[in-house]
Specification:
- The structure is a single chain.
- With 242 residues, this protein is mainly α.
- The protein is built from eleven helices and no strands.
- It has helices at 2-36, 43-65, 86-94, 98-115, 119-128, 132-139, 145-172, 175-184, 189-192, 199-224, 232-239.
- α2 (43-65) packs across α11 (232-239), α4 crosses α10 (199-224) and α5 runs antiparallel to α7.
- The longest helix is centred in the first third of the chain and has 35 residues, at 2-36.
- It is elongated and about 65 Å long.
- The protein starts with a helix and ends with a helix.
- The relative contact order is 0.15.
């Protein structure tokens, strides 16, 4: 019995000594990993890489949407009639009034295309305000974490910037007149009673939705497609994340 007790005590002592020896080694390993950044880029490089990626994605998304047919010919972001009016539009097409519906949709998309370029400077302002903590969170986030960052930081400014441009554009291309004509149609009478709907707000909201959608797609490419990592810095930051 005494023999077994001695073995147990000896084993416990050896385990304790091993644990004490491991503790300093663990500390050294952690310090080394911190110093080397675990083989990845440091905070400054990550922030610079994120800012470069955001600059690339915003430039491409604004250029893609802020041109003729940038919205209209892109089925993913094309602005259609408000959902509650689509049955009305379908009915109007059936009675030979499809041209009126088409003109309204074209006008809404033209207004969005004219407003989109105003987003570029707003996005640049958001990029310059990005912190190291923001950059780390974006890098480790989902495929569209940077796009979500822009939504959080820029939505209010975009709404304020887009609203007058969209309204002016819709007046110039006849959207306001076309919308009022549509609402005068008996088939739209039920929708016309809605007091909380604004065609201006609808188009502004859809413009932002389309812009952020395209930006998100550009961000996905930069994160996952080596061909989209067009500079050494982008490859350094995003290539090693895979």
């Amino acid at each position: 019995m005494k023999k077994y007790a001695f073995i147990i005590l000896l084993s416990a002592g050896l385990l304790s000594a091993w644990a004490l020896a491991q503790s300093p080694l663990d500390d050294l390993r952690k310090k080394a990993e911190a110093a080397l950044g675990k083989g990845g880029p440091g905070d400054d490089r990550i922030a610079a890489g994120l800012k470069e990626a955001l600059t690339v994605s915003t430039r491409k998304s604004v250029a893609s949407t802020g041109r003729v047919d940038g919205f209209l010919k892109n089925e993913a972001i094309k602005i259609l009639l408000p959902e509650k009016l689509r049955s009305v539009g379908k009915g109007m097409r059936m009675v030979g009034m499809g041209q009126q519906v088409d003109a309204l949709e074209v006008g809404m998309n033209r207004a969005a295309e004219q407003a989109a370029p105003q987003a570029r400077q707003i996005f640049i302002n958001a990029i310059t305000k990005m912190t190291i903590a923001d950059a780390r969170q974006i890098l480790s986030g989902g495929d569209t974490a940077a796009t979500q960052y822009f939504k959080t930081k820029s939505t209010d400014q975009l709404t304020a910037a887009f609203a007058p441009i969209v309204h002016r554009s819709m007046e110039n291309v006849g959207v306001i007149r076309q919308y009022n004509q549509l609402m005068a149609n008996p088939m739209a009478a039920r929708f016309a009673d809605s007091k909380d709907f604004s065609i201006d707000k609808y188009v502004v909201g859809k413009t932002m939705d389309g812009l952020f959608y395209v930006m998100g797609e550009e961000e996905r490419k930069i994160r996952k497609d080596p061909a989209a990592q067009t500079t050494a810095l982008l490859r350094e930051v995003f290539g090693k994340k895979q």
